[in-house]
Amino acid sequence: MKSITERDLLHELFPETARELFGEGTTARPTLGLYPIADGRLALVRRERLVELEPIETTTKKNAFHCDLCHVTRSRGEVSVYRAHVAPRTYRYVTLCLGTQHCLGRAGHAGLSGLADRLLD
Ligand SMILES: [Zn+2]
């Protein structure tokens, strides 16, 4: 029996996102990661699960924001609010630094795992 890989699954469920993440014909298989994809969106992947984070416009007048990944307080221009479609008719909202790589560096694996727990449970 042919086993189905995470990549096969992603290609089936989210063909466009999987192509952006893995390209065609690569064997990369991230088990936990946050990846910039097209149009300012991010893809949070854990094993066979994937959730897309879509940046949304906010009209808040706040000027201090708490990053939900690295937990640093940022100013308005340094973050984006993202909407994650976690289940049918269910969205969760997270605030993340715009500098994804630096944010990930501060958060580390444990921080990213915590975010995945919130969005991919
Ligand atoms: Zn951050």
Proportion of beta-strand residues? 25-35%
- Distance between the ends: 29 Å
Sum up the overall morphology in one term. Answer: globular
User: Which class of secondary structure composition applies to the elements?
Assistant: alpha+beta
* H/I helix tally: 3
On the 0-100 scale, what is the average pLDDT? 85
Which ions, cofactors or small ligands are bound in this entry?
zinc ion
Number of domains as seen in the coordinates:
1
Quaternary structure type: single chain
Radius of gyration: 15 Å
User: Portion of residues in helices?
Assistant: 25-40%
Low-confidence stretches: none
Count of extended strands: 7
Order of SSEs: HHEEEEEEEH
Labels describing this entry:
121 residues; alpha+beta; five-stranded antiparallel sheet; globular; binds zinc ion
Describe this structure in words.
- With 121 residues, this protein is of the alpha+beta class.
- It has one domain.
- 30% of the residues lie in helices and 32% in strands.
- The chain has 3 helices and 7 strands.
- A 5-stranded antiparallel beta sheet has the order 1-2-3-6-7, with helices on one face. Strands 4-5 form a two-stranded antiparallel ribbon.
- A hairpin with a 5-residue loop joins strand 1 and strand 2.
- Helix 1 packs across helix 2.
- It starts with 5 loop residues before the first helix and ends with a helix.
- The relative contact order is 0.16.
- The site of zinc ion (ZN) has 7 residues, from strand 7.
